[in-house]
Amino acid sequence: MTDTVAAAQSSPISDEPVHEPWPLRWIALFVILCAEVMDLLDALATNIAAPSIRADLGGSETLVQWLGASYTLAMAIGLLTGGRLGDIFGRRRMFAIGAAGFTLGSIGCGLAADPSVLVAARLVQGLFGAIMLPQGLGMIREMFPPAERAKAFGLFGPVMGLSSMGGPILAGWLVDADYFGWGWRMIFLINVPLGIAAVVGARYVLPAGRGERRVRLDLVGAGIASVASGLLVYPLVQGREHDWPWWSFAMLAASAVTYVVFARQQVSRSRRGLDPLVEPSLFRKRAFTGGLLTGLLFFAALIGFSLTFTLFLQVGLGWSPLKAGLAGIPNSLGTVLGFALGAGLAARMGKRIMYIGATLFGVGVAAMALVVAGTHDTPTIWQLAAPMALGGAGMGLFMMPFFDLVLSSVDDHESGSASGTISSVQQFGSAIGIAILGTVFFQVVDGHVRTDGSEHAFGLAMQVALWCVVGITVLAALCVSLLPMRPREGVSPH
Question: What sections of 144-245 are H helices per DSSP?
């Protein structure tokens, strides 16, 4: 959902005459929403199903981390170029290709017979998702006149909110019901009808628009960024399993060097008058660089929390996937409430609402850690409900003004690059959160079991992971100070 907001707010497409009749516009919007729902359901459902997947396919504990990290890492890299592919080859064409590839990747996930094939299929999903998602926003701005555009974008909130609430429940129900003996495979195969609807709809109802300015792809830059990101995430996930060998630290160091090479390559490309993946001028703007760091930290905390919470409920407490999905309802309700309240408060409070949101999120997570400790590592779903709702409300308040504050600080010619960059960093933060907090969780479990074999190993691991989430959230809140108090006057990111 937040990728959608970022892209919508910074799209460089101008207001063009609308040629589609109004019924066709709204049918086309439904097609675009199908794509958004596929992405969100896939991300949420995989966390719920991860323990069942590992129990069926085997593999090490790191499989649980790679199921999420491979998808978000692939999408992070793909988003740097995904929107520009639409500018070059046409948005409708790239939307259809992205939807078809995502659907095929989903089929590959559903039919995977071993962990490596499943992770590879997740990579395919992420790459094609990064091609598919950016195209819809440009087409909405083409199809809808300004008077209707706010209503069109306004539908994303309720649809995404319902998906975030229903996704984990649907996933848990499908895994538990074990239809046709397919179990967890159904959470991926359910994407097939949505994907077919998106591909067919793209052929018949979507406009074949392109951006105003032709751009050239920076495939070399994309390759360097991919290598740098892989060198960072791989040792964070696999290092623990191999007892942190020397090569894990060597890869982390090589990642830092490769990111420097990427930065220099982007500056060189810009000086030669070519289109970089990331406009170097963006990093001279404090609000933008602060926004990247804030988003990286907050999404690392948020997605890392989601994974470890699911592991604790299913692996530690032995809850069924459906019960674990139901446990997330208070968080989803709180998030919807936070966004609703934030919409009215953001104009008056500016970035101060982000401090309130970070505080509520941190307090909710800390309260959850205290509940786990106070119930001797066996909390009930009702004891977790209030902290979950509080944390969700904080997330909604934090995210509501975030993209406006960051993206309003960029100039018009930088808006496309800024949108792709911040969406990419959001996904990259998610991958980092999965890698770090998943590693912390399993490290504590393994260490505690080796020490005394305590049955409370998972409870202790959850408490440590939750306090790590609180610490990362504090760092994200500190970075909010780099953002402007309010969006820059005279600039409308919408």
Answer: 146-154, 156-177, 186-189, 191-204, 219-238
